[in-house]
Design a protein that fits this description.
- This protein is mainly α.
- It folds into two domains: 67 residues, no CATH class; 135 residues, no CATH class.
- Helices cover 54% and strands 6% of the residues.
- The protein contains eight helices and four strands, in the order E-E-H-H-E-E-H-H-H-H-H-H.
- Helix 4 runs antiparallel to helix 8 and helix 7 packs antiparallel against helix 8.
- The N and C termini lie far apart (74 Å).
- The relative contact order is 0.08.
Length: 253
């Protein structure tokens, strides 16, 4: 059998040596010794048989059977030669790796149309204008005026939240978390930002008169008041769009 290629030599721990068993009729019967497989040692104190699955279970799950280093699929007709005998083929990429690759690429998908949409443009305008507000105020002696401390608190807080909201929409995270009512969250966020920013802009404009004209504080506070009102208009536009999307969702329900 070795000369004809029926069996081959192997040094694997899972190999089963072929032997001839003498029968009562004085005829030999070919058999395979499973001793090495049965007594394979998993640890120093534990012996277990080789953990193979049932062949019918492997067929049901369309699993790959591994013979040496050449896996083949029992349900694939292209893997069988003449007479239904499995032939060797090149190993293919497991389906789990394909699913992992596809899921990893899907998590990196971005909404490329967001920056050009009205909602994306308003979010970018809020980020830029809000950044200018707290930079201009932060570069002065604002801590001597309690009203300007309020302006800094509102501008920094809503700038951070707006950046986070923009990243959520850009990465399409809101589509992966359907349990959160994002339209309602966006409406509440933009509405509160409009009201609080309007108050902050009015306070900032009133604080300009307390500075000496032409000085650094005066120029920065005047510029920050202008950008604060501009940011308020952006948040008002976002609140209007959010209200329209929220109302359309409520009518569908």
């Amino acid at each position: 059998m070795l000369d004809k290629g029926v069996i081959e030599e192997s040094t694997s721990d899972w190999c089963s040596p072929i032997m001839l068993v003498r029968q009562i009729q004085s005829s030999g019967r070919r058999s395979a010794s499973r001793g090495r497989v049965t007594n394979w040692k998993l640890s120093e104190q534990e012996f277990r048989p080789h953990p193979l699955q049932w062949i019918n279970r492997m067929k049901d799950t369309n699993a790959q059977i591994t013979v040496g280093t050449w896996p083949f699929n029992p349900l694939s007709s292209s893997m069988e030669g003449a007479g239904g005998v499995p032939v060797r083929s090149r190993p293919s990429e497991p389906a789990s790796d394909l699913r992992l690759h596809s899921s990893s690429t899907s998590t990196l998908a971005f909404d490329h149309q967001l920056p050009a949409s009205p909602r994306g443009l308003l979010l970018l305008a809020e980020i830029v204008c809000g950044l200018l507000v707290w930079i201009l105020v932060g570069g002065t002696d604002y801590f001597h005026e309690a009203a300007l401390v309020w302006v800094m608190l509102v501008s920094v807080l809503y700038w951070v939240l707006t950046v986070c909201l923009f990243l959520i929409y850009l990465s399409q995270t809101h589509q992966r978390v359907p349990a959160v009512h994002w339209k309602t969250v966006s409406l509440c966020f933009n509405s509160s930002a409009t009201v609080l920013y309007l108050v902050a802009a009015a306070v900032d404009a009133a604080s300009v008169g307390k500075a000496i004209g032409g000085r650094h504080n005066y120029n920065c506070w005047a510029a920050s008041a202008f950008f604060a009102f501009l940011t308020t208009l952006c948040y008002a536009g976002s609140a209007f769009l959010s209200f329209g999307a929220w109302r359309a969702q409520e009518e569908e329900l």
